[in-house]
Every structure is written in C-alpha cells, then in structure tokens.
Automatic annotation (TrEMBL):
The lineage of its organism: Eukaryota, Metazoa, Ecdysozoa, Nematoda, Chromadorea. It is found in: Golgi apparatus membrane. Its EC number is 2.4.1.143. This is Alpha-1,6-mannosyl-glycoprotein 2-beta-N-acetylglucosaminyltransferase. Keywords: Disulfide bond, Glycoprotein, Glycosyltransferase, Golgi apparatus, Manganese, Membrane, Metal-binding, Signal-anchor, Transferase, Transmembrane, Transmembrane helix. Mn(2+) binds at D183. It comes from the Eukaryota. GO terms for cellular component: Golgi membrane; Golgi stack. One of its GO terms (molecular function) is alpha-1,6-mannosylglycoprotein 2-beta-N-acetylglucosaminyltransferase activity. Substrate binds at Q67, V68, H69, S70, R71, D98, Q150, M151, K152, N153, H154. Belongs to the glycosyltransferase 16 (GT16) protein family. Its cofactor is Mn(2+). It catalyses: an N(4)-{beta-D-GlcNAc-(1->2)-alpha-D-Man-(1->3)-[alpha-D-Man-(1->6)]-beta-D-Man-(1->4)-beta-D-GlcNAc-(1->4)-beta-D-GlcNAc}-L-asparaginyl-[protein] + UDP-N-acetyl-alpha-D-glucosamine = N(4)-{beta-D-GlcNAc-(1->2)-alpha-D-Man-(1->3)-[beta-D-GlcNAc-(1->2)-alpha-D-Man-(1->6)]-beta-D-Man-(1->4)-beta-D-GlcNAc-(1->4)-beta-D-GlcNAc}-L-asparaginyl-[protein] + UDP + H(+). GO terms for biological process: oligosaccharide biosynthetic process; protein N-linked glycosylation.
Length: 203
C-alpha cells in the first residue's frame, strides 16, 4: 500500500528546498501548484535574518521594502548603498522576489548590517510550467509579454503582504515604510532626510 504524504509536510519540504536550493527545486519537476503552495508557506514562515546581531524585530525603526526581479548587478549596487546608510542597523529590509535563484538569494542572505526578511511573489510567471520549461533563468529579462503586467501585480501583492504579514504581524504599525526597487541607489543620509521630512510634516 502506497504511503500517503501529508500535504502540509509536502509543502514544507518543497518550501525549504526552494529556499535553500532553487535550482534543485526546479529540476525536481514541481508543479505550478506545488511551487505556489511552497512559496506561500515560505512567506507565512519567513526567516528573520540577523536578529542575533541586532535584537528582536520590535526594535526596528523603519521598514524598507525592495522589489526584486532578476538584475543582480543593480541589486548589489543598491545593497552596497544601503550598507553605507547612516542608521541602517535600525531598519528592517524586506526583499520581495518574483523569481527564485541562488545568486539573488546568496546576495540577500550575505547582508549583515541590519535585519532582513525575504518573501516570494507566489504568482510569478516563472512558476508556470510552460514558462519554466522554455526559460533559462539567466536570460529571464528577455521575457517581455508577461513580465510588465507581473511587475504591477507583484507591487500590489507585496504592499498588501508587507502591511498585513510583516508590519501588522510584528506590531510595527507606527513605523514608516520606505519602498525601493532593485535598480535604485540611496544616499548615505536617506534615513536622516526621511526623518526630517516626517518631523516637518508633524510640526
């Protein structure tokens, strides 16, 4: 008699495989539904990186959301500019991905200058069978017909998820949120200027 696999256990196994080794997960031949379920599981059970260095997430003073696509070079530049930002150790960086790929994950998980959370857009075009079977992730930027609508959908999903699944979940409702894209670059005083603007608005 074939052993029945608990759906929750399958989702958990697939989720951490995607988190730790996206290439192996894709090579495993997971269905679109399995990948979407795994992505949702990862979002619900996201890891808060660097709490051991900077303390509990309740100490965060600003939430910075970064929408990530596939441009590793640009993302590296943004992260380096954030590294040089005064007060960044008091921030929570939330990276929202619409593809899963080791180089992106490795870069984000190498951050040691503040708390970090990764979330994954569960309706990415790369999760659908016909796209995955005909697409080299290294050339993903050439997919044009589906990518641009996805960016907008990802934006809406990301904002809703962060405010409900992060800000509300951890009691950060009184913190301000700064939204960035992977190809942005910030000045070292960006958080100081943000605080000045907030103070002027409140005065």
């Amino acid at each position: 008699m074939e052993k029945q696999v608990d759906p929750d256990e399958r989702a958990r196994t697939n989720a951490w495989l995607i988190y730790d080794n996206p290439t192996a997960a894709l090579e495993k031949g997971l269905s679109t539904e399995e990948i979407q379920t795994a992505a949702s599981y990862l979002n619900d059970h996201h890891v808060i990186l660097n709490e051991d260095l900077f303390g509990n997430i309740s100490g965060v003073q600003v939430v910075i959301i970064v929408q990530v696509h596939s441009r590793l070079r640009y993302l590296r530049g943004l992260i380096e500019s954030l590294r040089a930002t005064v007060g960044i150790e008091k921030a929570l960086l939330v990276f929202s991905h619409d593809i899963v790929a080791e180089p992106l994950n490795d870069l984000v998980r190498s951050i040691r200058f503040c708390r970090v959370i990764q979330i994954f857009y569960p309706f990415s075009v790369t999760f659908f069978d016909d796209v995955r079977s005909n697409t080299d992730l290294g050339n993903y930027t050439h997919l044009k017909s589906d990518v641009y609508p996805q960016m907008k959908n990802h934006w809406w999903w990301k904002m809703n998820y962060v405010f409900d699944g992060v800000v509300k979940r951890y009691g950060l409702e009184d913190r301000h949120v700064l939204r960035l894209e992977e190809d942005n670059y910030v000045a070292p005083d960006v958080l100081h200027v943000l605080n000045q603007l907030i103070e002027q608005k409140q005065s």
